[in-house]
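Holo prediction — zinc ion.
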Amino acid sequence: MTEDHATLIQGGRVVSADGEYDADVLIVGERIAAVGAVTAPDGATTVDATGCLVLPGLIDNHTHLSMPFMGMWSSDDYDTGTRAAAAGGTTCLVDFAIQREPDQLRSALEEWQGRAAGAAHVDYGFHMAITNANESTIDDMEAIVEAGVSSFKLFMAYKGELMTRDDAMAACMERARDLGALTMVHAENGDVVDLLVKRALHAGETSAINHALTRPELVEAEATSRAARLAEFTGAPLFVVHVTCAAAAAEIQAAQQRGVGVSAETCTQYLVNTIDDLRRPGVEGCRYICSPPLRDVSNREPLWDYVRRGILESVSTDHCPFTDEQKARGLDDFSLVPNGLPAIQHRLSKLWDEGVVAGRITPSQLVDRTSTTIARRFGLSDKGAIAPGKDADIVVFDPNAVRPYGLATSFMNVDYDLYEGELASGSVRHTYCRGTMVYDRGTILTEPGHGRFVRRSSPAVTASVAA
Ligand SMILES: [Zn+2]
């Protein structure tokens, strides 16, 4: 495709964060040129979208491709993981580069850039996870922001591996604040989890369900509250990742009502799965081990309501797949199971069925929570909307094309699908990333390397005060 090639998506219904309307969308080169009643220019490719919804490409703000964790690697790399993203209507993801050397962040960013370069099919950015916040690490934060990585993540969990203590956390938050960057936290009280895990193992409680029982809701809520209070104390904007339960979401709302700049996301699996999935026998239960864990079903409607009201402003996936062989390492000791599950391909179809079709959110709210708000919050200024001048990141979604979940239709590099045998009521027909069709009805059309690193500007740092 040349720089100027034009594609006209005709006859679809455009869904934006503000509403829906019938419109054609003209793509010229990598950008959206016009939206409305458009006549196809000479030589343009026309695409019939009659009966389909035309959405801005989804953005997944929370993924772990080729992630080193607990002595293993997550099983999707930037090639397979972004194929699955495109198949699920995701055109941009923000993955986590993780500090691996005590003194600096730049080497981690180079390492992750090296893994993604030439491999990805959709665009990508990075957050930088700080795991050892000494003075030289904090000095390094400015270079990371200058490299287009404008958010930092701290782990309040994973004691002895990734966990940051409160003094270091406060120092990082102050530095991020001064750099115009956003601090993200994984909020669980790692000390208390460590205590509960030791007790459970000592008592011989080793099966998968004990993973969830040793990470109870109040341990997440306590850390969420503590992080929000540190944000209030330091004046640093905060984003809490993967909120799983009503108790933690209530802490977000309370902070927002105090006027603190705290925002938060949840993930698909917390809206559709429950703690009971961990009670499945053998390795099947291990597949559902992620942190924070899946919760009791009593959280489901409250969590959806927090999403609907925008107190949880976005939904990502925390995609971090491990194969059955990797998961089986912890069959006799849940604490050895690598944490994470495969979800990158299923966010749109699950939120469509469980959110829109079930009447919990509108199509516009789905677009807002999975694309527009993420773009605004994380400084992806060319993405997140179908409007002239924006990147032509577009999904043509057929709400009536039933699609089975399962290994036969999964692009994820993992040997099971959590929703095997279930049916999605709609399907992604086409996914465009910067004007190029990446995915066409079951087939990936691009070569690895179509996806590019996206430099992010300073994030939007004001949280809206909750209604
Ligand atoms: Zn994560």
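READOUT: Confidence is low (pLDDT under 50) at residues 462-467.
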